[in-house]
Amino acid sequence: MGPDGVATHHHRDFPLDRLLEAKAATGTSVSLVLPARDEEATVAAVVGAFLPLRDAGLLDEVVVVDSLSGDSTARIAADAGATVVSVADVAPEIPARAGKGEAMWRALHATTGDVVAYCDTDVLDAGPRFALGLLGPLLTEPDVHLVKGFYRRPIVDESGAVAEHGGRVTELTARPLLSLTRPELASVVQPLAGEWSGRRSLLEAIPFPVGYGVEIAVLLDAHRIGGAESLAQVDLGVRTHTHHSQQRLGVMAAEVLAAALPRLGLSDPLGREMRQFDPGDHAPLLTPINADERPPVASLR
Predict the structure, then answer these.
(1) 156 part of a folded domain
(2) I want to staple 65 with a disulfide (CB 3.0 to 4.6 A). Which of 103, 139, 219, 222 is the partner?
(3) Could you list the pLDDT tens digit for every one of the 301 residues in the chain?
(4) Is residue 158 part of a domain?
(5) What are the backbone dihedrals phi and psi of residue 138, each rounded to the nearest 5 degrees, phi first?
(6) Structural domain range at position 256
């Protein structure tokens, strides 16, 4: 148990045999969702890493949600063995948007599992341990409703060498914000982790930001509804991914704040544009901030 009530586990605590027994005993169905946008280089390996768990009966669905990709992500994912759906084909009465949260929200329409686990598709070392760790607390502890993954995060540069370690938006935005406003969540190692899972009953009851604010929003909403005792986190080992530019990280940080501030009772976002500056000539660089949110899925039924 973490010092602030957030239970902490390791993926090795949840071997496959144990989870298969728990799944059968509780009659729980499980969906694994892999949001993807222009990830043709990595999506096949990520899908392949989880198919043994589908074959073993732990995963009932392995679904890649294609977020308006302009490359061959959808075809490659299907060839690798995943069920592939396009955000444009899910709830088609609502025009599709690009965005990570949009893909995650539409996945709730396209899947049926009582438990839904999400994993990113830009990782270089995905493995069954990701799904085992994320599903473990949900299948074995009925009072847990949301599970966050955490890991060591080396970043590789264009040459394939480890350039640094990730988590800059976490360390410079999310962690200071939670430490100051929700100290009971300060023990969550990686609040913005893309690997997380939840019970459908929770996920369909809360709104989803369309963009990168989705992870902080779901964490804050789950904490508001169930308290720290309804949360758990699991060490998933190592997760290697590719590098984002500082400019892109700045926009991501703005989307995190746009989602978090209203949930903390601090402020609704007034601006919808990120103003940055070119380091060479200091010309302004303007990027839209994706602060829109989708309503709870349950409210649409």
Answers:
(1) yes
(2) 103
(3) 444 569 999 999 999 999 999 999 999 999 999 999 999 999 999 999 999 999 999 999 999 999 999 999 999 999 999 999 999 999 999 999 999 999 999 999 999 999 999 999 998 889 999 999 999 999 999 999 999 999 986 655 555 554 445 578 999 999 999 999 999 999 999 999 999 999 999 999 999 999 999 999 999 999 999 999 999 999 999 887 566 677 888 999 999 999 999 999 998 888 899 999 987 788 899 999 999 999 999 999 7
(4) yes
(5) -70, -35
(6) 7-300
